[in-house]
TrEMBL record:
Coiled coil: none annotated. SUPFAM superfamilies: Zn2/Cys6 DNA-binding domain (SSF57701). Keywords: DNA-binding, Nucleus, Transcription, Transcription regulation. This is Zn(II)2Cys6 transcription factor (Eurofung).
Length: 426
């Protein structure tokens, strides 16, 4: 029987291409990758080149992978592998979005190789003006989101780490591109595209780099893990595929939580070295140690929520899990209320997903009503800082969606958040 003709997709995601399965091209995460909890990437090809005065011809694109998150069949919180395929060629406005790399020896074919754009792009434009634009935005605007009072005197030193660590500078530029996509609505898709490409490139370089935590690598590893987590959270919150499909959003958010568990392992391994007397990030970490601790009591709305959960007799393990999530939310609320110039209030909002236990993500993925109600209470913090580019209207969106999903049966559980966010359309 002759093979049935079919239209071949040339714009599918890289993971579907690698697995040779049909991609529905849903962005930023296709249905196949959502269902299988894989990293979904739409990318351009970058190349290894041999160090030379002039760029040589392109060679085969590298395969990349990163041990983050959790895969199917593993235990909660366990690490899994993020697999990325060899990237296929694609065009975009303004040329390719190849990242920044460095090296002096191509013999290993890995971390010592140089990643460059195509030869034509380099010959036409020796300086990548997009990267210059992104670095300027990063230095003058993006970092102020987290340090509005310019409390961190070691900021120039932190940027010096990025210059000598290719995977870090690519991820920093990726975050800056994501920021610029919110600043320029007319070029939103353009900057969002390059944010995804730079992050893909950063992950590929990181995979081929030395992951051993030492005195020399702990700071760039810590910065990379932190910025990568913020990038993933922001992309999930503000780039919602379909505002009418809350189920898709929840799938993406729980996907982010699972990936971030792997990021947390990097932070734990580097923690003691980072708090050494001569660490450049020690002042910020010391401030965090003081701020991020639960000393009670709970705010009235959170206390009512905990009382309702306790009275529901869900079992000790689940009750303790929700208690930890609620107490973590109180910690972050306290940080946001403190107005401490050493620590931007938005940091408190960002940290909550890091503090919750892996099993909370599982409860959210299972659409357990109590887990959704806790998420709606976190949405209050997102709403308070809705003018921040990281969050946008995500707080109102999450609360309104949870209310619609749970219905009138859970109305009393959500009375506190609804009182705060009065302009949400219910």
């Amino acid at each position: 029987m002759p093979r049935r003709a079919h239209k071949k997709s040339r714009n599918g995601c890289l993971e579907c291409k690698r697995r040779h399965v049909k991609c529905d091209e849903n962005r930023p995460i296709c249905s196949n990758c959502t269902a299988s909890e894989r990293i979904c990437e739409y990318g351009t090809r970058w190349f290894y080149t041999t160090p030379a005065p002039r760029p040589g011809p392109p060679t085969a694109a590298p395969k990349s992978g990163l041990g983050l998150g959790r895969g199917p069949g593993s235990s909660p919180g366990a690490a899994t592998s993020i697999e990325s395929s060899s990237l296929s060629s694609a065009s975009t406005e303004g040329g390719t979005s190849a990242g920044i790399g460095t090296g002096s020896d191509s013999r290993t074919g890995s971390e010592n190789g140089i990643y460059t754009p195509s030869q034509a792009g380099l010959s036409d434009q020796p300086v990548n003006m997009l990267h210059v634009e992104l670095f300027h935005n990063l230095y003058t605007k993006t970092y102020l989101t987290f340090d509005p009072g310019r409390f961190s005197p070691g900021l120039p030193g932190l940027f010096s780490y990025s210059i000598t660590t290719p995977y870090l500078i690519n991820e920093m530029l990726a975050l800056s591109a994501l920021h610029m996509s919110t600043l320029h609505p007319d070029k939103r898709d353009y900057y969002h595209y390059h944010a995804a490409q730079l992050q893909t490139h950063a992950l590929a370089i990181f995979k081929d780099s030395n992951h051993q935590v030492t005195q020399e690598t702990c700071v760039p590893l810590f910065l990379f893990a932190s910025i990568l987590g913020i990038h993933m959270l922001c992309d999930t919150l503000i780039y919602r595929e379909n505002n009418n499909d809350f189920s898709t959003f929840l799938s993406r958010f729980t996907h982010y939580l699972r990936l971030h568990y792997g990021v947390r392992t990097i932070l734990r391994e580097a923690w003691f070295l980072l708090r050494a007397a001569d660490s450049i990030v020690k002042p910020a970490l010391d401030a965090g140690m003081t701020l991020y601790k639960f000393d009670g009591p709970l705010d009235p709305a959170l206390q009512v929520l905990l009382d309702r959960i306790t009275a529901s007799k869900l079992g000790q393990d689940l009750t303790d899990l929700y208690r930890q999530a609620i107490e973590s939310l109180q910690i972050c609320t306290n940080v946001a209320n403190a107005g401490d110039q050493r620590h931007a209030a938005v940091n408190g909002v960002v940290v909550w997903p890091i503090l919750v236990q892996p099993e909370y993500g599982d409860a959210l993925a299972a659409r357990r009503p109590e887990a959704l109600v806790i998420l709606a209470h976190w949405a209050v913090l997102l709403w308070r800082y809705r003018e921040t580019w990281l969050f946008g209207d995500s707080g109102a969106y999450i609360l309104g969606s949870v209310v619609d999903l749970l219905g009138t049966e859970w109305e009393a559980w959500l009375r506190g958040p609804r009182r705060v966010i009065q302009d949400v359309h219910m």
